[in-house]
Amino acid sequence: MAVRGTRAAPAGVAERSRPGTGARAVRFIHQIWRPVALLALLFVVWWVVTAAEWVEPYLVASPGDAFDTILAKPEYFWDNTLVTLWETIAGFLLAILIGVLGAVFMVYSPTVERTFYPLLLFAQVIPKIAIAPLFIVWFGTGLTPKIIVAVLMAFFPVVISMVTGLKSIDPEMLQLASTMGAGPVSTFVKIRLPASLPHLFSGLKVGVTLAVTGAVVGEFVGANEGLGFVIQQANGNFDTPTLFAGLIIMSALGLLLFAVVEVIEALVLPWHASRRIDAATTSM
Fold this sequence. Notes:
- The protein is mainly α and about 280 residues long.
- The protein has a domain at about 75-270: MetI-like fold (Orthogonal Bundle).
- It is about 80% helix and about 0% strand.
- It has helices at about 10-15, 20-50, 65-70, 75-110, 110-125, 130-140, 145-165, 170-180, 185-220, 225-235, 240-270, 275-280.
- The longest helix is centred in the C-terminal third of the chain and has 38 residues, at about 185-220.
- It is globular, with a radius of gyration of 24 Å.
- The two termini are about 45 Å apart.
- About 30% of the residues are buried.
């Protein structure tokens, strides 16, 4: 008796199982409408509080005054935003490089991990604004101290997430790779590194926002340009609209960089469970 083979699935079924552009757009809207609605609600509350004069204008500027200030001095805010953006990106990229390399050394060398891990925890609990003046004394008021503070702020979540990712590999998979003749480099490139990327991107999304904070903190201590300088100068002059304008731009910058990391994660990790459209729709 002949054994019937299983019929192949129609070609259209495989194509329909892939999330199309419309499905991705629906998923994107489904993910962002709640935070967007909350943000809009906060702006409405802010506007109501200031319009009703429940607080003095010199304490809380209205949204209209803040945005009018931005529109009145676009070049001023643009130039200072670019300075903070450059400091943030430079510090963030250095934090990625140092954090990933440090995590690899700690995972592959227990001696290095036992030696440096407690020092990392000790360095993390030190308030960065307390040591930022030292960098101003050592390196001057240029970009270098701000980049260093950004590195210190972003480094910890990067290295911790990378260590966690590299250690999350199933030992049986590592034994199987060794049995099949894979060397340490091949095992790292083909097994450890891909498996650690979801954890790494979680740390990167935290680290990029902290890098913005670090750059601004460095500008608070000593600078003549940047968003931190704008906020500090406005605070000294009791210029509340400019102060709130600087805070809005700084927050927008952090959200923008977070979104960039999110997009890169979606491009690098399309295979991850969190990126599958069916994983999101089946839970609804």
